[in-house]
Structure formats: structure tokens, C-alpha cells
Amino acid sequence: MQSNAVLATLQPNYNILSPSRFYSSSASAAATFLPVFYPQRTRFSAPQYLKLDKQVLASASGRYVHEVKSPFKNAAVLSDSYSSEASELADIEWDNLGFGLLPTDYMYMMKCSQGGNFSKGELQRFGNIELNPSAGVLNYGQGLFEGLKAYRKEDGNILLFRPEENALRMRQGAERMCMPAPTVDQFVEAVKETVLANKRWVPPPGKGSLYIRPLLMGSGAVLGLAPAPEYTFLIYVSPVGNYFKEGVAPINLIVEHELHRATPGGTGGVKTIGNYAAVLKAQSAAKAKGYSDVLYLDCVHKKYLEEVSSCNIFVVKGNVISTPAIKGTILPGITRKSIIDVARSQGFQVEERFVPVDELLDADEVFCTGTAVVVSPVGSITYKGKRVPYGVDGFGAVAQQLYSVLTRLQMGLIDDKMNWTVELS
Ligand SMILES: *Cc1c(COP(=O)(O)O)cnc(C)c1O
């Protein structure tokens, strides 16, 4: 017979999120055996897993899991019959979700050797993973990430937004970073499986979305600089609300004219992990001065707009909406691409071109786009000590209109004539 402790390790991790959720007697009795899912809160190194005999155990959600051999610990894997009570909602405070990690039930994992093909991906309980200290991703930054969202519709079904675009972008990034990548089908199927397995974490309509984070990394050991001998594709998810602490209020940007995010010939155009540690210094300095984020200029002329740390930028003047052209140093955002199409469908003229920083001075509106930020209005931009304000409060009319069309499409509230959404039920 299984002990309570063993069962507790297979219970959903939200038990450790807040003391008030330590209500389950088996969970509290077994607290000292719980895997360390949340290192920020649990500093000591508890046993990472309990050795289970290969056996089928009922998980707390009524799904069945069994242990499999894997180099990753906490490696309990879903069997085929997990779909039972997917319609239930997780027991968390759904109002006021921010953009932080809430651990969910399952993550997806798939491996491949250098020169091989990805196959046999599987869901596992969400938890820590184990890597060789010499893993390519840890030593040389051979890694990519993606980001997309799932929304819950009023009828309970779930919508993904253009997941095949994320798959294609990961494949382009993988080519640049000398990594094998899942096929578009493998990627999209893996996203669907992961979302359905974590369905109870998709916020109710209007409360937010499930952020989906696919990772691709060189997980094999290398010492000399070279592509890793093995790769891991992983997907984890977290329910999220607003990205900026401002919520839906306009953000305030500062133009950075010394540090740069990307260089011609570099990797700015792909979502490789190293691009993001590199912007922390400028971002931290900006936040310390009260700004929301940094707006980068091109590194050659220091004159043309590029983008913000993790979102694209648009400038509105009359009926014309301009955004920096994609030329290798700007991340080709899927939200950017979608907003360009939405804006044209709404009768705006959209220009992808070099946008000189001076144009910020007499713009009517500025807004940012990205999966995480959706469409964020910019309230002011500060450049060389001069602050240029936009609007009085809240969204500008154009940003509001585009935000409204895009989000209603993503949430299934209007007809998807573009065929952008993928429905899961
Ligand atoms: C991810 C990202 C974006 C936005 O891309 P979306 O596909 O719209 O989410 C923009 N800029 C950078 C630097 C990014 O990493």
C-alpha cells in the first residue's frame, strides 16, 4: 500500500503556494518529503524525489501517473487516461493575477541527440530538472525560448493563438543556434497536450490567460566550445494576468543610447536566452529611476528605433502606424505581425521602415506589442533627459481599438476570419 507521503508528492503543487492551502492532511503530514518545486520559498535541499516502485498511483486530480526512468527527477508521467476532470478550476485567487510563476501540474519533455530527430515526448509532473554542470545551455547559452498564451472561452473551450508561428520561429532560432528543433506538428501537438493536462490552470474568461513557455536547450555535456551532443525540448505553463505592474495603465519608457540589445549579424532576431540577461542592466537602471522599461536604438547610427526589452514598438501619426522594419536586430513578434494585419483590416496605413527617434516628438500615440504585454499603451518616452508625454490617461484611441480587436479575437469573442486561433476542448 502506498503511504500518504508518496501520494502527497504526486499531488498538485499548489499545496505549497500559501500556508492557507496546507489544509490537506496528507499534504501537511508529508510536507518534509515534498519535492522542492519552489526554491525561492524552500531553500534547504530536501530529497528531490522518493524512490517509487514502478506502479500506478492515483494523483490528486484523479488522473493516473506512473514513474518512468528518466534523467530528470520527479519523473512521474501521465498515462493515456488523464483527461477526466479537466474542466475543474484550480483553487487559487483568480483576481489580480500578475506575471509571476505559479507552478502547475505537468510539463512536457522531449529529447534528441545532435543530428537526430525529436521523438517520444511525454508529460511529467512539473518540477525541477537535472542537468550535467557541463550542459551546453549552462556553459555557452545554447538555448531558445518561446511564449504564447491560451485563453478560456465562455463555453469552457480553450483557444491558442497562432501556435504554428511560434513553432516556426523556434525552428528559425534553432538553425541560428545550431540546434535540432521539433517539427511544427510536434511543437503544436506538445503545446496542446501540455495545456490540456494543465487545463484547470487556465484562468476563467476575463481573468487572464495561461502563459505557455516552450524551451529548447543544449542539455548534453560539452567542455570545448561546440554544439551540445543532446537537446531537450520542454514546455511549462503558468496562469498570468498583466505583464507590467502598471496593469492596463500606460507604461513609461526611457530611450537607452549607450547599451544595445542587438547588433547586425548577431542574434537579436531570434529568441535566444542570452539576449535577455544582456538587457537586465539597462532595464534595472531604468526601473530604479521609475521607468517601466527601456527603448533601444540601432547600434550603428544610434538614431533609429528598435524595440523594448521584450516587446515591439509602434508609433501612430494620424492614420499612419509605423513600426521598425525587421532586419535581423529586431525580434519578429507574432503580436507585431498580427497587429499589422489587424490595423490594415481596420483601414490604417501601416509602414515597416526605419523610424528615427525624432519621430517620437510629434507622434500622436506610441504602443508596444508582445504576447506577454499584448498591446501596452506608452504614456511617455524620455530621451536624453526630455520627457515626451502621450495622451492624458489610459489608452490612446488607436491602441485601444487594436487591443480590443486583437484580444476579442484571441478570446473567441469575435469571428476569427483570419483563422488564427486553434480551439481545444
Ligand atoms: C518575444 C519578444 C517580442 C514579442 O514577440 P511576440 O511573438 O509578439 O510575443 C518582442 N521583442 C522581443 C525582444 C521578444 O523577445
From TrEMBL:
Q: What is its EC number?
A: 2.6.1.42
Q: What is this protein called?
A: Branched-chain-amino-acid aminotransferase
Q: Which organism is it from?
A: Gossypium hirsutum (Upland cotton)
Question: Which parts of the sequence carry N6-(pyridoxal phosphate)lysine?
Answer: K271
Q: Name one Pfam family in it.
A: Aminotran_4
**Annotated catalysed reactions:** L-valine + 2-oxoglutarate = 3-methyl-2-oxobutanoate + L-glutamate; L-isoleucine + 2-oxoglutarate = (S)-3-methyl-2-oxopentanoate + L-glutamate; L-leucine + 2-oxoglutarate = 4-methyl-2-oxopentanoate + L-glutamate
Q: Which InterPro entries match?
A: Aminotrans_IV (IPR001544), Aminotrans_IV_CS (IPR018300), Aminotransferase-like (IPR036038), B_amino_transII (IPR005786), BCAT-like_C (IPR043132), BCAT-like_N (IPR043131), BCAT_family (IPR033939)
Gene Ontology cellular-component terms listed: chloroplast
Q: Source organism's superkingdom?
A: Eukaryota
**A single GO molecular function, which one?**
L-isoleucine-2-oxoglutarate transaminase activity
What are the entry keywords? Amino-acid biosynthesis, Aminotransferase, Branched-chain amino acid biosynthesis, Pyridoxal phosphate, Transferase
Q: Which residues form a coiled coil?
A: none
Q: Which cofactors does it use?
A: pyridoxal 5'-phosphate
Please tell me whether the keyword Transferase is annotated for this protein: yes
